[in-house]
Amino acid sequence: MMKISLYLLFFHLSQAEIIYSPNNIDSSFSPQSHTLIENWLGVSEDTSVGRPYLTRISTNDTFIDEGYVTNGEISVVLYQGSVHIVNDIGDGILEKKGEKYWTAPNEFIRFNMTANTIIYIFGAEYDLADMKPYEVCPECKNRTAELTRFYLMENRDAKDIHDIHINNGTSNATDDAWNSTLTTPPWLTVKSNQNNSWVWLHDHPYGVIYFIIEGCLMYFCYETDCFLATDGDVRYEQLGVIYREKIIVKPGYDYCYFAVSDFYYNHPEGQPNFYNKYFNISTQLTYPLRSIAHL
Fold it and tell me: Alpha-carbon distance 59 to 114, whole Å?
């Protein structure tokens, strides 16, 4: 009930067609030379509640940041270059576009970005603390492995699976998917090499974030208007909103490549619902597919 009531509370702050782009940055600063941090304000770490916070870090040099995650869960998505990430139990490297790292709050993170790297951080407001925000009970510490996760091409749960939604499954688009677990969210990357492809009227029952990574002109169309997102843009859609998509491969590219959050490949209840017309539908969750309490 808390999840639903929070959604209703913030409904007025989370209208449709939210596109994070260079035209609507809320704040930016340079922590060092040749490095820029840009921030977009959000509502919640949880896409079913409202649009998440977003931070974009780009560097032409190396850049290191570390600390404890304070405000809620965050995900680090690689857009360009490579980043080495260390937590309390190990480390990993994001080096392929669209790879991701997820961490629950109160966990330690240290990332080292190589030169010419761009990452996006979405979820809770990005703010790393020098000290652990709160202590974890001794008997809970053995659950740390459930509270961090690397989404790498080498550990995906589904590889090059035919996409059944683009052109109603008649295109040769492919998906790579990482399933959700009890605490960790799902992740999906899509590669479409057919120009002027489309996805018919649908909604996402848990809200959704699109990361437009490479070679894309993506139009998100509602009953009367269409909105364009292209490479480097991030788009949020709240649950319960019906829209369609048109996907164009940009000139000079062989495919359009993008990533999608909160697409539960391993849960039919968490996949898009399709419709034959626009209409108003319920905006409350049936039930959560994973824990957001992170106890």
Answer: 8
